[in-house]
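pinned: reference chain
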Amino acid sequence: MIGIVIFLALAFDFINGFHDTANAIATSVSTRALRPRVAILLAASMNFIGALTFTGVAKTIGGSVADPATLSNGLEIVTATLLAAIAWNLLTWWFGIPSSSSHALIGALAGAVFVGAGADALNMGGFKSIVLALILSPIIAFVVGYIVMTILKWIFGNKSPHSVNKGFRSMQVITAAFQSFTHGTNDAQKAMGIITFALVTAGYQSDMDVQLWVKIAAATAMALGTSIGGWKIIKTMGTKIFKIEPINGFAADASAASVILSATLTHLPISTTHAITSAILGVGSAKRFSAVKWGVAGRIVVTWFITIPICATLAGVIFYILDWIFY
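pinned: its structure tokens
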């Protein structure tokens, strides 16, 4: 059973890699700052390095929603959680919707714990703090993106657009690498946290410290997933929200990466998808409010809000099915 859980957690990390690749490289690909293949290899490498750098988010994921040591059916709960999160990620990837893997995982874990162990097993305080971070981070990313783009407009507004974009196209290589690194520092840790959660509930370890082999396995799975790429989401992020120029891409990438790294340093799991999409929306609004395709943005936001309840419900249903089959 623990082998199945580890396989599913790494599968989730792999899918997260190609599902969220677009987040880090969509702007640099759409502005032709990087060729798609080069951008994906850069993202994969920096994701791997970022995934090995921190563990604070993993400990939050593994211990804040529920105490794994108190769950007699923890492996069943984790299995239902991962199956639900994987199903939602694949569905949204198929339709090219940049939904949140973090929302999917947190919602699924809460739903599986609630159904499998009861409301008392759910740590509402920890769950609320995570959800609050998930809600506030896109708002902060929007504001930061708006401010950064406004400052850049003020500085470079009277200069030649051609020379400005040429300079920022080169700078986008740096911000794409930075954003890929921060993505690894936050998103890869979610699989690490779930694996550690499973190891504790199965009695293989007594604390939430992430073992080295778990770090390497999760980092590798995410890097391999990233190397495949998610072209449908790249198209949505890079072209369908508003027409992105190199200066806009630089502003969005720098803003989102700063928000993600700040969350990682405070051990908070946030949605990299939300942070990056919101930063793009903020930058687009600063450029020209009417330039943003708010219909597309609205559909993305709706997906954000429905992810947690849908995944919680789906995980609960899957838990019932697993319980009926095996017990």
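why pinned: DSSP finds twelve helices and no strands in the chain. The longest helix spans residues 161-201.
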